[in-house]
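Board work, copied verbatim: Aldehyde dehydrogenase (NAD+)
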Amino acid sequence: MPVFEYAPAPESRAVVDIAPSYGLFIDGEFAEAGDGKVFKTLSPSSEEVLSEVAQAGVEDVDRAVKAARKAFETWSALPGSERAKYLFRIARIIQERSRELAVLESLDNGKPIRESRDADLPLVAAHFFYYAGWADKLAYAVRGRSPLNGTSGADPRPLGVAGQVIPWNFPLLMLAWKIAPALATGNTVVLKPAETTPLSALFFADICRQAGLPKGVVNIVTGDGSTGAELVAHPGIDKVAFTGSTEVGKAIARTVAGTRKKVTLELGGKAANIVFDDAPLDQAVEGIVGGIFFNQGHVCCAGSRLLVQESVQDELLDALKRRMSTLRVGDPLDKNTDIGAINSAEQLARIRALADAGEAEGAERWAPACELPSSGYWFAPTLFTGVTQAHRIAREEIFGPVLSVLTFRTPEEAVAKANNTPYGLSAGIWTEKGSRILWMANKLRAGVVWSNTFNKFDPASPFGGYKESGYGREGGRHGLEAYLDV
Ligand code: TAP
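↓ predict structure ↓
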């Protein structure tokens, strides 16, 4: 089967040569699906077909799990320092091939090249570097257990084969969050990327070959939700790691209930970005814009509810509207683009329906004048004022470039409104007062709380939710525990 060919060029389509078709990556080889089924992956900015990709069926998933099981015997027995060498090699190849990967990601996902190049790709490499560093220090990975306090000098054991299912919003970054800690801890993996963004995972498979990773340690099964369901239900899986919607997360929890499988679920969010009247407003406006319009708002921890203190509401909203009027929506491969394409026609329909519901329920809709391209899937950055807590746009995850503005008078009211959601993934606080930041951070039921910034990520920081945003943590030392028998 063909792999991705390198063609040096500036940030443009020509950087990466995409083959007309791709197979599944099982046991170190690309191969067609057993029943020959394929599906198309599109560029959401042009609706052009980028490639045809194999649709894994039940037998393909079984082959992949068996390959991972076989590879587990030798991979888990390698000294951590040897596994680290492979991970460091993968990290370096990602850096070397980051232009190709950034262009591929922007083509298949629709995100602006400035984001894939300057945010996604550096974070992907950083994850592999970070977890490579842990592979020979696992005796220190589990809280309360360390050779230094005499509890255990032995490495904790890996779980076995991890079945990993990821969404389309950060295709390669979500892959890195899953694969890097799994491999560092001695597990092997079968990963299913989202149906609309399979290409960077297949490119990554090629990188595994380039790095000389032993066959079967990483397997990629492309397909739709049915492939994900088969993977999660497969009896040969020891660990399920899922990132996606709360609805599918609940179905997965039901599937694995009563089995030996360990599970981590990273699900939806409806974060509050809370601005007090003493906050540096210019800085807050940048944080609000980055919080909701980064990656077209396709971000689980997006600051989709702006809670602004009543006394600065008018001033803040004027500044925010001025800033939103400068955002450029358009070609993801143009370095000046701020907001790219919505990932799919289905997602665009979902965003439109919720925005229409916002208007129908009485909130006031505003968007800057901007011309949207004629083909592809687009949605202008949009702001709703006069939003109440009962409105759907204040309660449901929109997963698009739509901001709902609510107001508050006191810190207590801000906390109550911020926590009034079934989700609990993230929150932001903008204020000059350090004591208020600490007080709020303790009261907010959110896995991540940013202060005077938003959407900042680091591989050393654990990430994950409360309530219906899921359970388990990814990133940092906590992210290792999810793959270890502790
Ligand atoms: P989902 O529809 O849940 O899809 C996620 C993945 O699960 C996809 O690969 C999907 O395949 C697969 N899938 C669908 N049905 C399945 C089933 N019954 N069993 C197993 N796998 C199944 O979510 P999405 O629309 O791709 O992503 C958006 C959601 O992800 C949002 O709610 C967002 O908040 C959440 N998200 C959370 C985080 C964190 S870290 N908490 C990060 C990113 C995104 P197909 O693509 O083929 O349908």
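The chain is about 40% helix and 15% strand.
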